[in-house]
Amino acid sequence: MAGHPANMTQNHPAMATAASPAPTVSSQDHPAFANDPRQQTPVGQSPQDPIANGKPTFQQAPQIVQVTSPGPSSGLPPASPPPLPEGWIAHMDPNSGQYYYIHLASQSTQWEFPKGPTPLNLNEAPMSPIGSVYSSHPMASPGLSAFGKPMASPGVPLTPGFESLQSPMVGFSGPPPSSGMDMYKTAPTNGVYFGPYLRYTNMDIERGIWLGSILLVADAAQPPTIHLHQSVDLSPNPRQLKAVNIAVHQRWTFYKYEIDIQMEEMGPAKWTYAITSHLGCTRYEFLVAGRHETNWRFIATSGNDFSINVNANERARLGGVGVMWKDIMQKHNEIGGFHAQLCLGGQIYADRMWKEIPCLKQWLSISGKEARKNAPWTAANQQDVSHGYFHYYTSHFDQPYLRESFAQIPYVCQIDDHDIFDGFGSYPEHMQFSNMFKNIGRIGIEMYLLFQHHTTLDILRNVNNDMDLFTITGTGWHFVKYLGPGVVVVGPDCRSERNPHQVMAGPTYQGLFPKIVILPPSVQHCLWMVSVPLIYPRLETAEHIAQTVATGKRAVTGTYNLLGKVTSSVAGVVGAKEFVGSGFDSVKRAVGKSGLMGGILSPFGEFDLMDELRDQWTHESKDLERTYLIRTLQGIAHQKSLRMTFLSGAVNVCGAGLVHDPSNPSDHKTMYQLISSPSVNTPPPSYVVKMLHSSNKPLYVPANGHKSSSSPTDTKEDMMEIFQTDINGQARENRKLMGRRNYVAIVAYDPEVVAATPYGANTPPGSRPKLSLAADFMVQGEGAYASVVKYGPVIVPSLEHGR
C-alpha cells in the first residue's frame, strides 16, 4: 500500500504524464489478480488450527454424501415412504429397488430417512426457479397451486429451463447428481434464441454517430437476421446488420450485431430493428437522441436479482422479478422513451452457485486453509461453473418485462461483486488467491463481458481506442461514455483490482483522471458509476450494532461480539445467540451483503461482520483511498467547471447524499451521491433502516493523505432528507433512506428553458446553456399490486465557471 496514491499528499498525477505501459498479464491467471502479491498464512497460525485470533473456528462443513447402494432388495417393492420433512423428496433407485432422498435446496442425496429439514443448516428456501419448500408439492412453482394451476396472485414466474422440474419423476436418474450441468436445462422463451440485448456503446461527438450493439444467443444452424431502419421509414430495403460470432458455449453461439446510426441534426428519432428466424419476425423500437440534444432521459438501477437468503414466499410477496421493470416500461412508453439505462451492478446474483454446484460444495468441505487454497481447478469445475453463469444470465434476462426492457432501452452496465459472487475481492488472501476463487472470478468476468458488454477479452486486447471499454493496468475494464454533448458517464471497474486493502490500484487512478481532464468544454456533468456508494451512513461499532439490533426487536441481555456470539458468562438467555445472529444478517443486507461470506463460504468461522463491511468505501481500510478520490475530483471539477456526481447501488436502499462546503454550497466541492437499490432484491427490515439513521455525528472529508475524523474541514458530508412521507402518505421519522424496491429516473434539462425564459436572452454569445439534472426516485408501494410512488426531484445544478 506504500505506493498507492491515496497514501500520498503530493499533487494529483492527473496533471502529469500518463501512466506507464501496462504490465503483461498471463491469460491463465484471473485478470483481477494478475498483479497482486500473494500473502501467506500468518506466522504462528496453522491452517487447521481451530483457534484463530482468539475466535473459535468451526471445522464443520457441508458434507458430500458418498452414496453406496444397500444391496439387492428382497424382491418386494418397498412401501411408500412416510411423510417427509419440508424440502425433501423421495426417489426409487431402479438398481436396488430402495428409496433414496433428495434435499432440494442443496441437491444432496442420502439413503437414510431424513431426520430434519436440512443437512447443511441452510435456513433459506431453494433458489428460484426451483419451487418453494413451503408449498404442498415440493417441486411446485411458487406461482402455481399444488395441482399445477395458476394461483390468484401472479406469484413468481418460473425461470425458463426448469420446466422439467415440475414433475418429480424427471431430472433425477440416480443418486447423486454428478455435476452442476445436470441441474440446468437451458431453453429460451421463444424457443430459438436468448435476447435481444440492446447495448449503448457511445456517441461519436465529432461525427454525430450513435454507436451500439445487439446480442443474440442462439443454437440455430444460421444466425437470425436483423434489419434496421428508422421507424417512419417504410422503404422495402432496410439495412441488414452483420452477425459476428464472438463466443460459443456448448451448442450456443453468441452473435453480436454492431449498430452505427447517423444522429439527426434537428432532434430525436425512433429506430426499429426486426429479428427474423425460422419462427417468424419480431420487431423492437428504441430512441436515439438528436446530435445536439442535451436533454437525455435515463434510468439507474441495481440489485437486479434476488439474493440467496430470500425465500420464495418473500419473492411472491414482493411480486417477483418484474414489478419495477413493468413500471419502467410503462414510463418508457408514456414519456416517449428513455435514451439509456445505467445498470449499477448486480444484474445477476451468482452467489447461489455455492449452494447449487456440487463441485463447489465439495471444495468447501476441504479442511485447512492451504489445502483449499491449493486444491486444483479441473476441467469439470470449468464446465460446471461456466454453465452455471450461462444459466443465471440467460434465465434471469428472459424474465417478463426485464426481457422487454433490455431489448428496447439501450443499457450501460457496470460490474459489482454479485455479478461474480458476494464480496468478491474482499476475502482473506488464502481464499481470494486460491485456485478456485481465481478461476471462478475469471469465468465470472468473461460472462460479464459477454452478456453485459457484448465482447471478450480477446477482442478487447486487439482494440486500439477507448471509444468503448479500455484497460489501464491490464486488470479491469473501464469506460467513458457520452450521454449527449453535455453529460458524460464514467465507469471505473471497482471490482477487478479490489483486495482487502484497496478498491483500485494507483496507476488506474493515474490513467483515469487525465481522461476527465481532456473532456471537451461542452460537458457540464460527469456521472461516476461507482457500484458501492462513497457517501453513506456509517455502521460504526460492534456495540452500536448489537445494541440497535437488540433494542430494535426485543430486550436481550449480555454482551455480543460482531458475530452475535455471547461473550460474557450470561446464563439463562435462551435464544440470544440465534436472535442476535439473525439481526446481523439484516445488517449485512443493509450494506448489500447476502450472507454468503459468513454463512456459506465460512463454515470454519473465519469471517465476522467487519470482514463483510470491508467491501464498503466507508470502511476504514478504504478511508485514505476514498478521500483521495473525492479530493482529486474536487480539483478537476474546479479546473474544468464540471459537476461531479456519484451513481451507486448495492446497499438495498435508495437515497441521496452530498459532500459540500456549507459556506459555499454551490462551488466545486459540492458533489452529489444518488443511490438506487434494489430493483428486484428484497430491502432490509425497517429497524435496520432506523439504525442507519441513528448516528448524528457530523462527518467531514479530511485533507488528502489524512484519515477521516470528526474535525471540521471545508467539506462536510450529509444525507438529504427527501423521504418526508411514506408511500401511504404518513409522516416518516427516518427521512434519509427508503428501504423499498426502486429505480431512479434522471433527465438533463436547461432550467432557463423549463422556466419559459427565452434561451439566449440573458446569455452572452458563444456561451453554453446551464444544464441541470433532475432525479426522481421511483419507489414500489406495499405488496405485489401497489402503485409506484415518486419522490423528488433531487436537482443537481451545473457548476458555474470559476466556482
From TrEMBL:
> Which cellular components does GO assign to this protein?
membrane
Reading the lineage from the top rank, the first entry is: Eukaryota
Q: Cite the Gene3D superfamilies for this sequence.
A: 2.20.70.10, PhoD-like phosphatase
Report domain WW positions. Answer: 82-116
Q: Where is the composition biased (Low complexity)?
A: 13-27
Q: List the residue ranges of the region (Disordered).
A: 1-90
**Compositional bias (Polar residues):** 37-48, 56-68
Name the record gives this protein: WW domain-containing protein
